[in-house]
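Changelog note: in this version the structure field was regenerated for every chain. One regenerated record is shown below for reference.
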Amino acid sequence: MGWRLRKTSEKEEREADPRNRVNGKKIHGGASRHGTDSPKARYILSGLEWALKQEYDRGFAQSVKEALEILDEWILQNRDRSRYKAVDRRERTVQTVIGVAVTFKRRYYLDVETGQYVFLLDELLGLPKEKQISPALTEVAVMLGVSGPSYRISAEHLEHSHGGKIISHESIRQAVLRAGEAVAAEEASKMREGEGERRVPVLFVEVDGLNVRLQGESRKRVEAKVMVTHEGWRPRHPGSKEYELVNPKFFVAHDGEDFWEEASAHVMRNYKIDKDVTVVINGDRDRGQGRV
């Protein structure tokens, strides 16, 4: 008789157990005879989770690559052929919020109207030139960079949650800086254009200086600027010879280089200022060029 029954070892049972393999490959840990609440069982589940995540991540990257290249083909067929001349296809890699990098090819065009070379797919996706992280990952990086104790720890949190390095702490810092610049530019644009909802044909702005003695200081004084905006005057009551301001709003700040910037922002938050509005400025402006 060429064979005989024998008791299998625990190691042999673990290796034979299909729960310990993903795509035919053995994973660390392995099933055991211990209960599911044991440290060994938790280690098995952890290994299974990471193994499955890696498989899903690779599938995700391939799906995104195919989708982007299909979109690039659609652009080729539907572009303005008289303006954009296809030159060749070039490769680009972008790190995504899922934790895997996606490498895809897209077409390089010559814009005959401007003489510039462009990637129409990049423009459609809103991917800035040379940027290597996706918009969604940028949002996560900025959120972690702003709320976390440091950029390095934020990068480590991303690495831990994805099972590998995603972006460096310097990339997070750069993302936060760019986001700050974008917010500042947007705020400046709002201030110039006016974000308030109230519309009036004429807006009056009156500014005056005010010397204030500091508490506890017998001689030291500081000058503050007081601005009042209003929409004109009206009788206090029918038939009255006394007048009051219409919808007055007050703004007080220390005099300085930023006063008119802050005062202008105050006005813009309350009124819709455009070419149809006449702004009349009265008062003390001898310390700087005011604008609204």
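Spot check on this record: Confidence is low (pLDDT under 50) at residues 27-34, 285-292. Residues 93 and 103 are 4 Å apart (CA to CA).
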